[in-house]
## 1
Amino acid sequence: MSQHPISAPSLLDGKILAAAALDAFVKLDPRRLVRNPVIFVTEVVALVVTLVFAKDLATATGTPLFDGQIAAWLWFTVLFANFAEAVAEGRGKAQADALRKTRSDTVAKRLMFDDPDDLAHTVVSSPDLRLDDLVLVEPGDVIPCDGEVVRGVASVDESAITGESAPVIRESGGDRSAVTGGTTVLSDWIVVRITAAPGTTFIDRMIALVEGAERQKTPNELALSILLSGLTLIFLITVVTLWGIAGHSGTIVSVTVLIALLVTLIPTTIGGLLSAIGIAGMDRLIRFNVVATSGRAVEAAGDVDTLLLDKTGTITFGNRMATEFLPVPGVSPQALAEAALIASHADETPEGRSIVALAEGVHGLAEPEGIAGANFVPFTAQTRLSGVDFAGRSIRKGAVDAVMRHLGTSFEAAPSAFRDAVDRIARTGGTPLAVAENGRLIGAIQLKDVVKPGIKERFAELRAMGIRTVMVTGDNPVTAAAIASEAGVDDFIAEATPQDKLAYIRSEQTHGRLIAMCGDGTNDAPALAQADVGVAMQSGTQAAREAGNMVDLDSDPTKLIEVVAIGKQLLMTRGSLTTFSIANDVAKYFAIVPALFVATWPQLNALNVMGLASPESAILSAVIFNALIIVALIPLALKGIAYRPVGAAALLRRNLLVWGVGGLVLPFAGIKAIDAIVAALHLA
Amino acid sequence: MTVFGWLQILFVAALVLATMVPLGRHMARVYAGERTVLSPVVGPLERALLALAGAGARRSQTWLGYTTAMLVFNAAGFALLYALLRLQGVLPLNPRGFDGVEPFLAFNTAISFVTNTNWQAYGGETTLSHFTQMAGLTVQNFLSAATGLALAAVMIRAFALSGTDRVGNFWVDLTRVTLHVLLPLSVGLALVFVACGLPQTLLGSVDATTLEGAKQTIALGPVGSQEAIKLLGTNGGGFFNANAAHPFENPTPITDAVEIWALLAISFALTHTFGRMVGDARQGWALAAVMAIVLGGCLLVAQGIEAGGNPLLTALGVDPSLGNMEGKEVRFGSAASALYAVATTGTSTGSVNSMHESFMPLGGLMPLLLIKLGEVAPGGVGSGLFGMLVIAILTVFIAGLMVGRTPEYLGKKIEAREMKLAMLAQLILPATILGFTAVAAMMPAALASLANAGPHGLTELLYAYASATGNNGSAFAGLAADTPWFDVTLGIAMFLGRFGYVVPVMAIAGSLIGKTRAAASVGTFPTHGPLFVGLVTAVILILGGLQFFPAFALGPIVEHLLIPTGQTF
C-alpha cells in the first residue's frame, strides 16, 4: 500500500467520539430510527417503561426504583446503538471534510469557441461550467472539474485525491486522458472538455459516499434486516401472548418485566451495529484508496469467484527483462555479457536497461572507459538491430532472424547449442535475442516476463479461499501458458482482445460465478461494466472510470485481492455478530423466565442456573448486559473481525466456535457478574 | 431404557434405513416424470387420467399457477368432504345408520382431513359411516398426502433446476405420486396388516355376549386399508377413537413396529430424493441426519423419563420396573409407547398408541416439542422436507455470512425476497399457536373444555393448538374439543398451519428456481458435513425453543418440578 490520502483516525479519536455522543441523541428522532426496526421497537418500549416509571412516581405506587432503572437502560440500549452508527459516520465525515478542503471553488479559463485549437478564453467561476465546455488549464491552475484532455500534454499533481505526490502525465488521446477536478497542473498546458456537471464530480461523489449521505441498505443488509425484523416480530408474539398464558396460572406479569424480556430477546446487538458495520466496510475500502460507487459492490467483492487479472503490471513487471546470457560453445558467459553490455549502453528501452542491469548486477561488469564516444547503431524498423562499433569491435543484437540475416546465414546453420537455447527460451514464454560480434554469432539473451515476487503465494491464498485467478494477456498461447504456470494462475486467456474478456466474463456468469476485474483503457469499459466487481484505475480513461463500480486511486491492479478480502470481512462481521446476538438469547432466557414466574411457582427457581440474587436483579442484569454488549462490540464492528485466507469450512469452524459457542457462554458469565454488582450495590 | 426399548429402536431404524434409498430413488423418478418399475401397471391409468384432463393441464406451471391449482383442488376437496359429512345420513354404506355430522364438527373435520392434520374431534366408530370413512376421509388421506408430496417436488426442483420460472405441473405431480407411490405402498401395507390380523370388512359391527352374559357391540370396518394410508401419508386419523391403541388397529408389537416404519418411511426417503435430484446425495443425508438427531434426542428423553416410572406411584408401592404405564397398552409397554409417540409427532401424523396426556410431564413435553419445532423431524410427507429446507435456508443465511460470502444454499443465492417469505412462513407457527392459546387461556368458555387445572390444563391447550397448527392431529387428550369455539379456532389453526405456511414456501421455490446455480468451491459454505448438520439442529432448537420456552416453563416444566412436592393436576 502506498500513501493514504487521509490518515485513518484512531478508534478512540476524542473529537469523533464527542460528536458521535451528541449525534446519538439526535438520532433518537423516531422518523430516522424507524429505518432500523429492532432499535425502533426498543425505543418505543423504552418510552412505555418511562411512562410506567412516571406513573409510579406520580401515584407513589409500584416499583419506581426498578422501573426507573429498566427505563434508563433501555434508553441506553437505543443510545448505544445510535452511538455506534454515529461513530462510524463520524469517521467517514472526518475524511469527507479533508476532501472538501480540496474542492474550494476555483476559477476556470473557459474557451470562447467550441474549438480546442482556438485558445481565446474568458475567466468564469467553476460552478458556472457546463457539460462539454472546453477549459484551458495552465501551470499552477487547479483543474476546475472532471474532464477529458482534448489537446496537449501536462504533468498533473493528483495528490489531493490519491495521496501520491509524484506527478502523473495526462495527455489527449489514449488511456491517460482523464483528469479529475481539484487536481493541479504543474507544467505545460492542456485543454480539457468538461465531462461532469459541477456538484457531480468525482470528489463530490467521494464526499457523498464517505459521509453516508447517499447510503442505502445494500442487498444483503436488507435481507438481514428482514430476518432481524422477523425475529423481532416472533419474539413480540412470544412476549405478548405470554400475558394470557401466564394469566392462566394467575400470574400477573408486569409490563416492565415483559418489555425487559422482549428487549433482551430481540436481536438488539446486531440490530444496533448493522449500519455501523456497513459504513465501516466502505470506510476500510476508502482507507485502502479504493472508492466504491455503491455498497452493493463491496458485498459483491466478498462473493467473487473468479479474478480476471491483466498479466502486465499485475502478475509480471511491466516489461520484459533479460534474465540469462546463453553463449555459443567457445564463448564464455562473461564475454557474452560484456559484449551485450557494450551493445546496450545507448539502448534506453526497458529491455536494453535490463540487459545492462543483468550484466552489471549478476556478472559484476562495469561499463568500459570511453564508451560514450563510441559509434552507436540505433534500432530501426528495417534492420531490427541495434549495436555499437567501439574499439575495433562491431557488436549487434536483435531478433534472432534479423541477426541471422545480418550475418548472411540462416537459423538452421547456427550451432546446435544456440538453436536449442533459442527453442527453449521460446517454449518457456520468453523472447530470445541474438548477439553477434564482428560477424560471428556469440550467443543469445533470454528476455522474459518476470513474475512479481510473492504473487504465486497470493494466488495460492486465493485458491484456498475458493477464488480462481485468470490471467489475461495479449501474448501467444505458448508464452501465456508458460507465464501462467510460473505465476500459478488457474487459467489464462491468451491473445486476448477486449471482446474475449467480455465473452469470458459472460460465460463465467452464466455458470453463476461472480467476476472481478480491473482495467484502465476505454476498450476495457464494456468488460468493466459487465463484471460484478469492476475496479477502474484512477489513471485510466473517463470511460473506464464510469464503467467500473470501484476506482482505485493508486492505480494498482494487484489491489483487487485486497478488495475481495475487505468484502469478505464485511460479510463475516455481519454474520458473526448475528450468530452471536441470537446465541445470547439462551442465557437471557435462563435469567428472565424463572424470574418472571417464580412468585407463582417457586419451583421454577430450579431454572435459575446462574443463581442470580433476586428476580429483579436477574431481569435488570440481563437488560444491562444487553445494552453494554453493544458498546463492547463497537470497536469490532468498526474494525471488522479478523480475516484469514482459508477455505470456507475452516472459516466457518473458527467463527462458529468464537461467535456461536462464545455467544452461548459469554452472557452466562456476563449476566452473573453484573448481577453480583447489582446485588452488592442494592440496586434491585 | 430397557433392552426391549433399544431393540425396537434398532429394528425400526434398520427398516427405515433399508427402505430409504430405494424408495427415495423411486420417488426421484416419479418427480422427474421418468418411467418407474410400476409404470407397466399404473401407466395406462396415469395416461388415461391425464388425457382426460387435456393437454393444457399438463403444461409446466409458474409457482403461482401451481399454487393456485393446489388451492383450488384443496378447496374443492374441502367442499366435497363437508357435504359428505353433512349428508352421510342419506348416503349408502351406513350400516349403523348414523345421522349427518353437525356443522361445526363437519367444518372442523373437513379442514382437518384436507390439511393432512386428521385432528379428530369426533369418535370415528360412533359418528361416521363406512361411506364417509372410505369415500371421504380415506380419499382425503391420499389426496392431502399427495398434495404434500407434490409441493415437496416444487421445493426440490427449486434447487435442482435453474433459470426457469416453471416449477412443474400440479395435476401431473398429484397423479404421479398418488399412482406410483401412495397407492401401491398402501395396497402392500394393507395386505401386511390384514395378514397380521387387522379387520378389513364392510360389516358394521358384530354383537358378542361376554362371559358375564353382557351384550357387547364390537365395531368393525375396512380398518386395514385405512390404517395403511393413515400412516404412510402421515395423516393419523384412526378408524377407531382409540386410534392405534385399539387392538383392531394395532394388535401386536410386530404391527406396532411396522406402523412406526410406515410413519417414517416416506419422509426420510424424501431426503434421499432431494439429494439425488440436486445431484449430491450427501446433501440429502445431511438433512436426514438433522431429522434423526432431533427425533433421536427427543426419543431418548421420552423413553428415559417414561421408563423411570412415576415417583409418586412408586412411593405408594407400585413396582416401577415397567415404567410409567398410565394410559399405555400392556402389549406395547412404556418404551414402545414412547417410540410411537415421538414418531407420530415427529412426522405430523398424530395417530397414537398411548395417551400422551398420561406421560410424565417431561415425557409428554417431547411430543409437544417435536410438533412445535415445526414438524420437520422428519415431518409430514412432503411438508417435512420443505419445512426442513426453509430451516436450512434460514441456517445458511444466519451462519453462511460467516464464511464471507452472501448466503447461498446449493448454489442459489438467498436474498431479501427469500428471507421475507421465509420469515413470513416462520411467523405462522408462533402467531397461531401462542395467539390462540393465550386467548383461550383467558376465556372461561374455552377453559370449561379442560379436564385438568393448572399447568397440565395449560399444556392441554397448548398441545391442541400446536397439534392443529403443525397439522399433526394428535391430542393430548383431556380436552373436550367438540365445542363451537374449539371446532372453529382449531379449524382456522389447521388452515393457517397448512396453507398459510405453504403459500410463502411456494413463492420461495418460485424465486429460487429462476436463479442461476453457482458451482460449489472451497470458498462456498459447505452444506453436507457434520458442521452444517449441527448448525441446522441448533437453529431448529434455538429458534423453536426460544419461541416456546416461556410457555413450556409454565406447562410441563413446572409440572415436572412440582412432582417432588406431591402436587399433581
Note: The CA atoms of residues 20 and 488 of chain B lie 38 Å apart.
## 2
Amino acid sequence: MFLINCPYCGERDQSEFSCGGEAHIVRPKQPTELSDDQWAEYLFMRKNIKGVQLERWNHAHGCRKWFNMVRDTSNDKIHAVYKMGEKPPVE
Amino acid sequence: MKNKYSIFSLIKNAFSQHENWKQAWGDPEPKKEYEAIIIGGGGHGLATAYYLAKKHNMRNIAVLEKSWIGGGNTGRNTTIIRSNYLWDASAGLYDHALKIWENLSQELNYNIMFSQRGVMNLAHNLQDVRDLKRRTHANRLNGIDAVWLNTDQVKEFCPIINTSPDIRYPVLGGTLQRRAGTARHDAVAWGYARGANEMGVDIIQNCEVKGIKRIGDQVEGVETSKGFIKTKKIGVVAAGHSSVIANMAGLKLPLESKPLQALVSEPVKPIIDTVVMSNAVHAYVSQSDKGELVIGAGTDAYVSYTQRGSHDVVEGTLKAILELYPIFSRMKMLRQWGGIVDICPDASPIISKTNIKGLYFNCGWGTGGFKATPGSGDLFAHTIANDEPHKLNAAFNLNRFVSGDLVDEHGAAAVAH
C-alpha cells in the first residue's frame, strides 16, 4: 500500500488505482505472421522483476487515465511517474 | 528410522525433561558436487528431495534454502487442503496429493496433524450455484467426494454462519468435500526435512543461490553465497522468487509475483470445526488447534516482493467475514502477514522441464500451493529423475503457454485464484 502521484490528479491512495502490469510490451504489428512462440512471449511471458520495474497504472477511481510508473518491487518505492507515450526516465 | 518417534520415545525423553532429543536433521556445509540440487527449502522443495531419495534412489542431493526451511510460503499459508477442482488435469493432480496426505503422518513418522474436518464452499448468487453444482458433478465423475448442500444444510453443518436472506450476499447453498481439511504447515516441512535427511539428503540453510552456470544448453552448477556447487540437475522450487532464478538462467516465465495475505485472531474456544470458503465475497476461515481464527485474504493486484500486503485487502476480507459471521464482530486480530505467490495466467502450476537440459521448474502454484505439497514433490521428483513428466503432471508443462492448451482454473478452482 502506497501513495501514487497521478500525473493528472496529484497524490492519491494506491487503492484508487489499478495496475496494468509490465509496461512497454509492444502489440505485434503483424499479428497474422506471429509464430506460437512469439504469441506466448507477447501474451504470457513477463520479466516479473524483483527490483526496479516499469509498469502501467490506471487511475480507475479518479481521472481514469493511464500512465507509466517506475517502481522498486522489492520495497514498493516509486522512483518516477511518466505519461503514456513518453520514454522512461534514465537513471 | 534411526530415531523413530513413538509413545515410548516420548515417555523415555520425559524422564530427562525432553533435553536429550536428537537433532532431527543436520546442518552440513555444501559438498563440491551433487547429483541434483533443489533450490528452495519449503514444503514442495523438501518433499521433492524426500521422494527423489525414497522412490528414485538419488541420495547424493542437496536442498539449498536462502533463509531457514519452511520460512517462506510454507509458514505463511492458511493450511487448507482440498482437491475439489473442476478440470480433470487439476483433479488428478490435487487428489493425488490428498491421497498422500491421508497417510503422511505414518509415512514420515512425524505428526503433521492432518485433520479431515471438511471444506465447505459457499454460493452467494445464481451463477455461483450453477458453477458449484457443475463442479460437484465433475468432482464425482473424477472419483472425488463432493456434495451439494442447500442453505439449511449449510446452517446445520456450520451453525454460526448467517444464512439470513437479508444480507448483501445471502448464502444460497454450498458444496462440501469431507475428505478435505487442514494440516500443521511447519510440521510438513520439518517432517519431510527429517525424512530426507535420514536418507542422506543435505539440507543447507542460509545458502542463497546467486547464479546458474550453464555450458551451452546444459546446466553445470549453481553459484551460491557458500561458493560454487557443481551439478547436472537443478530443480527450482522457489515460489514467488521463481522468476528471479529463471532470470539467472536466461529464461522468462509466465509468472507474476504478488503478496497474498493472511491473518489470525486472538485464540478462543472451539467455535468453527470445519473450513468455510467463499469465492464471491472472498472470505475464508478456519480455526487452528490453538484456537485462533485463521483467515485468508486476497492478493494485491500488482507485482511486489515485499511480504507485506495492503490494508484495504484485509479490510475487504474482514467486512465479508463479519457479515457472514456476526458472532466474530468483537474479536481482535492478532497477527497479519504476507507471502509472495507466483501466479500463472491460467491459475494452474508449472511442474516441467525447460529447454535448458537439467533445469526443471516447479512453480506457479499461486495462492493455493500448500494443499499440493506431497503430490507436487512426488511428481516433480519423478520429472527430475526420469527427465520426463509423470502422466499426472504432463498437462502442467511450460509449453502449454505456447500450444494454448491451458488448464484454466480461474474461478473454477472453488476460490478465486
Note: The mean pLDDT of chain B is 95.
## 3
Amino acid sequence: MNKVFNNAAEAIADITDGSTLMLGGFGLCGIPENCIAALVAKGIKNLTCISNNAGVDDFGIGLLLKQKQLKKMIASYVGENAEFEKQLLSGELDVELVPQGTLATRCMAAGYGMPAFFTPAGVGTEVAEGKETREFEGKPYLMEYAFDADFSLVKAWKGDTFGNLIYKETARNFNPLMAMAAKITIAEVEELVQPGELNPGEIHTPGIYVQRIFKGKKYEKRIEQRTVRN
Amino acid sequence: MLDKNQIAQRIAKELKDGYYVNLGIGIPTLVANYIPEGMNVILQSENGLLGMGPFPVSGKEDPDLINAGKQTITTIPGSVFFDSAMSFGMIRAGKIDLTVLGAMEVSEKGDIASWKIPGKMVKGMGGAMDLVASAKNIIVAMMHTNSNGYPKLLRKCTLPLTGINCIKKIVTDLAVLNVTEKGFQLVERAPGVSIEEIKNKTEGNLYYNGEVPEMKFN
C-alpha cells in the first residue's frame, strides 16, 4: 500500500475534463491550496465543483472560475466573488445553491453509505421545488440525496502515510465530511508523519477514506476578513 | 430611533444564563458586545465552533480560526471545534437556544426573505435556511424600512423565501414586535418614536394591546 504522492500535480494527474470534485474549506479557511493550483495549471475544463463557497476573485476556487474551468458550482454562499456572480447572472455558469447544513449532510450521507435523508431546511422555498416532501410528526421535511463525486480534495493539518488525518481549529469545517464522500479522496497536509506518530484517539478522518496524500507546499492561508480588537 | 448598536443592545436583553446562541452576520454580531457581565452565554459559529471568543489583538490573527462571517476570532476556555455536519446537526436538533439573524423582508405570517434578489443579487442562503427551519427561538434584527424607505414588514414577502412561518420576534430601529396569528404585535417603541410612525412604516397588519411602552436601556 502506497498512498503517498510527491506533490499535487501527481496526485491529481488522472482528474479529467467533466469530473465532479468536492473541495473542502469554508471561505478561504482550510482550502486545498496546492490541489487548486494544480487544477489551474492542468487547465482541465467542464468541472462540477461542490464546495461551500466559491473563493474570492483571485484566490481559491475563484482561480478556476477566472479561467472558466467550471461548468457547474454547487455551494451555499458565494457572496465574496464578483466573477462568480457575473458568470451566474449571465447564465455561463450553472449553479445549484444548497443550504449549508444540507450541503454538509449530503457529504456525510455519502460517507456513511446512506443514499438520502430528510431535512426541514428549505421547506416552502424554491429549494423545495421538485423535491419529495414527507411529514414526520406533523412537520414537513425535504428528501435530499447524498452527493456522488469522483474526487474529494481536502486539506488537513497533519496526516500519516496511512491517510489518517487531523484538522486544525475551524479549518476542519467541510474537510472531514468531503474526505469520506468521494470515490477517490486526495488529502494535502501541512505535516506528513509516519504511522504511530498521531494519537489514534485524536484522528478525525480514518485513513480508510483517503486514497492519496501528499505534503503541501507554501500555504498562503489568506485571511478574508482580518478583524482585530480595538 | 435606534442605531445598530442599540438594536443589538435591546436584543441582548433576551439572553439568559446558559444559553447557546447563534448570531448571524451584521447587526446580530453586535449582540455579543452586550452580553451582561457574569452571564454565561456560549456563542456558536456554524462553520464549526462553540465558544466563540472576541476578535484577536493585532498580530495574533490566526487564518485557521474564523467565524461564519469569515472574520478572525479567538477561542475561550471550554471552546470546541467540530465539522459542519455536526454544527448543523446541533442546529437541526434544536439545541441552539436563540438564533439572531438579519432579513430583507418579514411577513405577518412569520415568513422571512434574506438571501436573493432575482436578477440583481445572489449571494446564497448559507446556513440561514437550516437555522430558520429548526430554531425554536428566532429574533430578526433589521431596519424597519429598506434603503428606499419602503417597509420591510409586509403582508407577504416579495423576495424569494428563506423559510416560512418561523419568525416570532423582530427588533428594528423603531420597535419590538411579536409575530402572532393576528400579524405584527407592537410591544415596544424606540424612545421618541410614535405608534403612528411605526404604523406608517409597516405594511403588514400591525396591532397592539393598550399602552405600548418605550424600550428601556440600562
Note: The radius of gyration of chain B is 17 Å.
## 4
Amino acid sequence: MNVLLDNFPAFRDGFIGTVSITAVSSLIALVLGVAVAGFRVSPVPPLRYFGTAWVTLMRNTPLTLLFLIFFFVVPEILFPGMSPFVLGSLALGFYTSSFVCEAVRSGINTVPLGQAEAARSIGMTFAQTLQLVVLPQATRTVVPPLSSIFIALTKNSAIAGAFSNAELFGWQKLMSDKGYDIVPVFIWVAIGYLIITFTISGLFRLLERRMEVAR
Amino acid sequence: MSASVLYDAPGPKAVVRNRIYAVVGSLAIVALIAVSIVRLADKGHLAPEMWDIFNYAGIRQNIADAILATLKAFGLAAVGSLVLGVLLAVGRLSDHKPVRWVATTFIELFRSLPLLITIYAIWVGFLTDYSMWALAAGLSVYNGCVQAEVLRAGINSVPKGQSEAAYAIGMSKTQVMTTVLMPQAVRSMLPTIISQLVVTLKDTSLGFIILYPELLQTARLIASNTQVNGQYPYVSTIAVIGTIYIAMCLLLSALATWIEKRGRRAKTGIKVAPGVQTASIPTVDALPGVDAGGAGGAGGTDGGAGGAGGTGN
C-alpha cells in the first residue's frame, strides 16, 4: 500500500479539491435551484416557461457534454482563461440545480393547501407567501432528497477531475499513469469518496433530526 | 397544490405588474442569448465555414459511426445492467445469508462510488484495449446496482397475498419469483427502469474520458483535427453533437412518460410508480417505498419524501 504513503501530498490535495469543488457547486446549485423553482411556480408565464425549459434541458444533457460546453464555449462568450475550478463548479452547479429545483418544487407541493390559502387571505403577495409560509415548511420535506442529490453531486465531481481539476479522480489518473497497480489506487480513491459521502449523509441526518417536528 | 394556489387571480394592478415582470424577464433572457451570440459571432465561431464542415461526407460518416458506437455501448450496458440488476435483486432478497450479504455489499459499494472511478479502474486494470467493453462493464455494474434496488422496491411492493397464494398452491421459491413476483415488479417499476436507462444513455458520455470513440469523443476529435479560418470549430461541433445527444435522451424520456401514462390508465394490477429521474449518477432513494435502511447512508437516505422530482419528466 505504498501508493498512498508515497504520494500523500497529492492525495491530500485531491481530497481537498473534491471537497471544495463539491462545496462550491452545491452552493451554486442550491441558490440557482431555489430561484428556478420560484420561477416555475410564479404567476409570470415567461419565467415559468424558462424554468421548465431549464429543467428539461439540464436533466437531459449528459454532464460530460455540459463540461465540454463550459470548457470550450463559455470562455469564448465571457472571457478566455477562466480557471478550470470555476468552470467545473459552474458546470456541476448548473447541472445539479435542475435536480434541486425539482426537489424544491415537489416540496412546495407537499405543503398543505390551507397554508397558502391562509397566507393569501391575510393579503400576502406571491413573494411573501413563498418566503414566509410555504418555503419554510417545504424545507422539511426537501432535505432528504437534497441529501441524495448532493451525494450524486459529489460522485459527479469526479468528471471535473478529467477536466484538469486537482481532485480524487485526477489523483487516480496520475497514479495509474505513473504505473502503480490500479487496484490499491482504486481502493484508496473509493475510501476518499466514501468519507465524503458518509459525511454528507451524516450532516443531512443531523439536519433532519433538528428540523423534525411532532405533528 | 397547483401553482395557482400560491397567488390570487390577478387584479388590474397585478396584471400590469405581471406584464412588466414578463417583459423584463423575457428581455433579460433574450439579452443573455443575444450577448452570447454576438460574442461568439465576434470571434468567428458562427461563420458559415464553421458549419460547412458538416457537409463533408467524411465528417458525416464520423458522426454516424459515433452514434452507432454510443448506441452499441448503451445497448450492451442496458442489457448488462438489467441482467445484473435482476440477479442482484434476487440475491438481496435471497433466504441464504451469505448470498444476501454478498449482494448487499456489492450494491452498496458500487452504488456509492463515482461511476467514472469504476469505469476508469476497469479500463486501466483489465480492459485497456477494449474501451467499449470497459465502458459497458462499468455502466452495467453501476446501473445494475441501481436497477437492483428499483426491482427490489418493485418486488416489495407486490402485495404479500400474491406470494402467499403462490406458495399455497405449491409453487417452488423459483417459480414464485419468476412467475408471480418478478412480472408484477417489472410492470410496476417500468417507468423508473426506463428513467434509469436514460441515465445510462447519458452516462455513456463518460466514454469520452477513456477515449472510447462515442459521440463526445468524436466531437472533440472532429473539432481538434479540423481547422477553419485558423480556429478550431469547437462551438459548432458541440452544438451539433449536443443536439443529437439531447434529442436521443429526450426520446427515451418521452418513452418512459408514455409508458407511465399508459400504465396508469390500466386499472388492473398493482400501482405503477411514477418515473423518477434522480441526479444523473443517481441513487434510487427517491423511489417511493425503497427501503434505504442499511444503506449506511452512503447511497443517500431519502425514502420519506419519495418521488421528489418525479413528475417533471
Note: Chain A has a mean pLDDT of 86.
